[in-house]
Amino acid sequence: QVQLVQSGAEVKKPGASVKVSCKASGYTFTSYAISWVRQAPGQGPEWMGWISAYNGNIDYAHKFQGRLTMTTDTSTNTAYMELRSLTSDDTALYYCARDGGWLDPWGQGTLVTVSS
Amino acid sequence: DIHMTQSPSSLSASVGDRVTITCRASQSINNFLNWYQQKPGKGPKLLIYGASTLQSGVPSRFSGSGFGTEFTLTISSLQPEDSATYYCQQSHSTPRTFGQGTKLDIK
After folding, report:
1. pLDDT tens digits along A62-72
2. Which residues lie below 8 Å from residue B8, measured CB to CB, with a gap of 6+?
3. Which of A26, A63, A83, B23 has the greatest CB tally within 10 Å of its CB?
């Protein structure tokens, strides 16, 4: 079955970076994009950006430009999301999702906690 | 950016009730509208895409309609397992914005 499995929880200090992985299985990885969505505690989902696994084209939400990098490794069917210069406002669950015009399926989520 | 507004923000209904949630877009998005269900401690689950197409495996009591700027998600006969938060999301353009959510409780 189509599945996205994310890396484990992270605890980071303010100013640090975090890199989350998302390993896809059960479909042709290069036929879809991967979107990254985060959800702060008690808040709704926030779309961060997406990357085409076919050609690497990228589109980031404006608020993350300059400190967000998305990449893919087609040899391992894995997508990566790196967020730099972390602050406490970045504490959230981070999800990857297969994007074919709608987000399905979603990974299990990776909790990133930013705390001094 | 396209702003998505859901109403109501929360509602409480009884088993068997017909429930409707509305989502409005700040500009026309044609039928590029998706609905997700999220239960506590879980990630969102796709229910409907393209405004009205039911995702495989989703019960037929869920339906979606609308075009342009106004959309609805309807649950024809509410079941206890439908207690969740529901989000709309537009995929017309980036950033792919979400509504603020509708929290549905069972009386």
Report:
1. 999 899 999 99
2. B21, B102
3. B23
What are the tens digits of pLDDT across the range B86-100? 999 999 999 999 999
SS3 category, B75 = strand
Instruction: Give A64's contacts in chain B (Cβ within 8 Å).
Output: none
SS3 B70: strand
Window B:61-90, CB contacts with A under 8 Å? 87, 89
Contact pairs from chain A to chain B, CB under 8 Å? 54
Q: Give, in degrees to the nearest 5, the angle at Cα A58 between A52 and A61.
A: 125
Q: Which two tokens stand for residue A64?
A: 């993350």
Q: What is the DSSP string of B4-51?
A: EEEE-SEEEE-TT--EEEEEEESS--TT-EEEEEE-TTS--EEEEETT
> Hunting for tokens 């879809």 — which residue is that?
A32
